[in-house]
Amino acid sequence: MMNMLTMARPLCRLFRTVRLVLIAGLAMLTPALLFAASPDDCRIGSYLLDDGSDIDIAPSDGDTLRWRRFDGTTGALHPQADGTWVSTRGWSKATDGVIVSFAGCDTIRFGKASGTRRKFDVHEVVFHSHGTALAGRLVMPPGSDQVPVVVLLHGSETDSGLKYYSLQRMLPARGVGVFVYDKRGTGSSGGKYTQDFSLLADDAVAAVATARSLAGARLGRIGFQAGSQGGWVAPLAASRTPVDFAIVCFGLAVSVIDEDQESVELQLSEKGYSHREIRDALKVARAVENVVTSDFSSGYAQLNRLRSRYSKSRWYADLRGDYTWLFLPKSETELRAMAADFDWHTPFDYDPMPVLRSSHTPELWVLGGEDYEAPSQETRRRLNSLIVAGDDYTIAYYAKAAHGMTLFETDAAGERTDMRYAPGYFDLIRDFALYGALPGQYGDAELTRPRVVARGR
Description:
With 457 residues, the protein is α+β, with helices and mostly antiparallel strands. The protein folds into three domains: 45-117; 121-255 and 350-448, Rossmann fold, CATH 3.40.50; 256-342. Helix content is 26%, strand content 25%.
């Protein structure tokens, strides 16, 4: 699921406190009623079908589009010569029998159902954090009622959130506003791409202030939703500005180094390797991690010794982790040359627990038991300890879900193909934004709710 550019999900560098620069120069444009995330493809949008359901159409790889439903089903749309689109199930190549067509920019035919584009109140904006211009967008359900607003925070991806984040339409279609922005160094925003959690948290604080200003009298509750690497950033941002909630999806309550170690252990244990073999593999992974955390300047002698010692071991070819796999086969010369490409100020040793222990913000954590990129076992244990201590945390645990809260099928070679999102996943996000709690059941999620009286609240 990662390549050299997107593997930023795990990597972090020097955690530092950066003084918040106040927002300046809000450049609000006239609200738009017809929302399209991709200016060159008016088919992008949310549609209300005549069977009462919603379908979201988003950009995807190459010339394909991706559809998503709130129930978690999804597929890719492939263009045909006759102007129709053929759907394939999940991220597989298997057709699902659905044929899709568009009539102009406002109507869709999805299988046997027809639908019309939903219209939202949309404000485009440029805001500033630490002197950097960031491009944002507030998307509100039509009307004048107060609604909660979710500020979407990025993971490690370098893609544009403004272009690709489908929650900016899926949540407003269910009565929840969204503020989405391109993080620094991506999309239409200025600045340089970074994994400095503190700086990214300040950007998120600036985004909240911007969303408050734009929403005005319509603002109800406001808080964060963050996935993956954003799970380190959202609680940090919530400690710096008052928000009503934070939702962390497939994030971690451990360090970036621990993330890779836990990933190695989970993957190899599921392949049936012994405790001793996994212990040896973890030593190799640690040597790789030491090279990376040194900014590729040291640790090579130890790494080379361990590679030479264990390269013939039966587990060696299966050693991946979250980012060890990328660097393990590289020579010292190749690794040293990679330093400039990974100069992201990643705080590898950042411990999120002090921030989580001191939090006064109700937080929902959505975790997957089959998440190779952000293994959840230790994170879940730590969050449970905070709940026992009386803190306001809620855990939704999907035992069979992978990173991204996707359910997958595994082929004979052990390769996974994601097929859909876990049932109830999108409902979790909506309900916690609306209520600050989870009043129902959400698919097969195992829910751990906070105690009745939360400490210090």
